[in-house]
Design a protein that fits this description.
- The protein is α/β, with parallel strands linked by helices and 250 residues long.
- It has helices at 43-51, 92-96, 98-103, 105-121, 137-150, 167-184, 195-201, 228-245; strands spanning 2-12, 15-26, 32-36, 58-63, 66-67, 77-80, 155-159, 187-191, 204-209, 214-220.
- It contains eight helices and ten strands.
- The strands form two sheets. The protein has a six-stranded mixed β-sheet, sandwiched between helices.
């Protein structure tokens, strides 16, 4: 994945607002990169550009050799946003199999055993016939993550997927995600405000400042993740940098 000299601007209050300005970012296949930064640093805008939901004014975005927005077809990504976005008129079973179903009936049938396995692993095996309104927030997020994985795309974009969950549920989903990332060899770009989440899950942590969004530090983490002795100093360093990047309250 390559983001090359990308700029993105909006109109806010009748005036132009630069969300990103000539930003460069490369993510190698199989990497897990977390984006940290204050509000206004362009984190979600960057994910939307990679997903092809928005178009840059300058620069280009390439995913798996495809130039997003200029090549035919959708980029090979699966995108899980902050809200679970489950379709309320479909059961949990039909929601998690939405991606395969959109490809073909044969794909839905092929991935049904995988869907059953993931529902059991995520503690949702008894809720396949339930409607989204009948689930707790944590259960809905689990279903949304399963749906994202069943899209079977090489690149996962995750925009604060666990931010609204309680600490216990968030920790469980983080462990599931870490294991599945290792097993499936996905490339992951995660937006989070949780420093520990970023340090424990990622191969790299990218600190963004702004607006306009810009990379302030690209921190490579030790192979296999930081040890207990390394975690404390890393956390302190990242928190100090984030504090310096966050504008003072008026």
């Amino acid at each position: 994945m390559a983001v090359e000299r990308v700029s993105k601007r909006y109109i806010a209050g009748g005036a132009p607002l630069a969300a990103l300005e000539r930003l460069d970012l490369r993510v190698a296949p199989g990497e897990f990169v977390s984006l940290l930064g204050p509000s206004g640093a362009g984190k979600s805008t960057l994910l939307n550009l990679v997903a092809g939901l928005e178009t840059p004014e300058e620069g280009r975005v390439c995913v798996e050799g495809m130039e997003v927005g200029r090549s035919s077809g959708a980029p090979p990504i699966a995108y899980m946003q902050q809200k679970d976005l489950l379709l309320p008129w479909r059961t949990v079973w039909d929601n998690v199999l939405l991606g395969p179903e959109l490809r073909s009936g044969a794909e839905r049938e092929r991935l049904s055993p995988r869907a059953r396995s993931l529902l059991a692993e995520f503690g949702l095996e008894g809720f396949a016939a339930a409607w989204p309104a009948e689930l707790s927030g944590g259960m809905r997020q689990r279903a949304a993550l399963i749906r994202t994985l069943l899209c079977e795309q090489p690149v996962l974009l995750l925009d604060e997927p666990f931010g609204a969950l309680d600490a216990i549920t968030r920790g469980r989903l983080q462990r599931h995600l870490a294991r599945l990332w290792r097993e499936l060899n996905k490339t992951v770009l995660l937006v989070t405000h949780d420093v520990d989440e970023a340090l424990l899950l990622s191969t790299r942590v990218v600190l963004l400042g702004g607006p306009p969004g810009r990379i302030e530090e690209d921190l490579a983490l030790p192979p296999g993740g930081p040890s207990a002795a390394e975690l404390g100093p890393l956390r302190a360093h990242v928190l100090q940098r984030l504090d310096a990047l966050t504008p003072a309250a008026p």
